[in-house]
Write a structure and sequence with these properties.
The protein is of the alpha+beta class. Helices cover 29% and strands 41% of the residues. Strands 2-1-6-5-4-3 form a six-stranded mixed β-sheet. The termini are far apart.
Length: 136
């Protein structure tokens, strides 16, 4: 943005917006079309989802564990996506419940894109301690 002028959004923000929308709707076919086969997703922490997930199948298996570990309550609302030629950043609000445990965080995702597909992703929770406490 420049003073008084709204800059056009970079095209790489669109696949990120579509991915978050597809995930929210549970449309895994649309989601798969936005994630490269050779993708790598980096999840920090010590919980059962932590680590590097190599390949589309491993990432979607991790998504399944995320839904299961939150008893189906996980939500992630996209606040904004900003992008450049190779990268995008998504600012999100995530919530989840499991029994008496809950997670509520303003999180960030950093994505590397190639030809409109996510080839690498890094999750940056607002509080790694809170994320670890919930997912462990």
């Amino acid at each position: 943005r420049q003073w008084g002028v709204v800059m056009a959004e970079h095209p790489n923000a669109e696949p990120i917006r579509r991915a978050f929308d597809a995930f929210a709707r549970g449309d895994m076919a649309a989601m798969r079309s936005l994630v490269a086969e050779d993708t790598v997703w980096h999840i920090p922490g010590r919980g059962p989802l932590a680590g590097d997930h190599h390949g589309r199948d491993a990432v979607f298996e991790m998504f399944g564990r995320l839904v299961q570990g939150s008893e189906g309550t996980f939500t992630q609302e996209l606040h904004d996506a900003v992008a450049s030629e190779d990268h995008a950043v998504a600012l999100t609000h995530a919530t989840a419940r499991r029994g008496a445990h809950s997670y509520d965080g303003e999180d960030a995702w950093v994505f590397h894109l190639r030809n409109g597909e996510i080839v690498e992703a890094w999750w940056r929770p607002e509080s790694l301690y809170a994320a670890d406490e919930f997912w462990t």
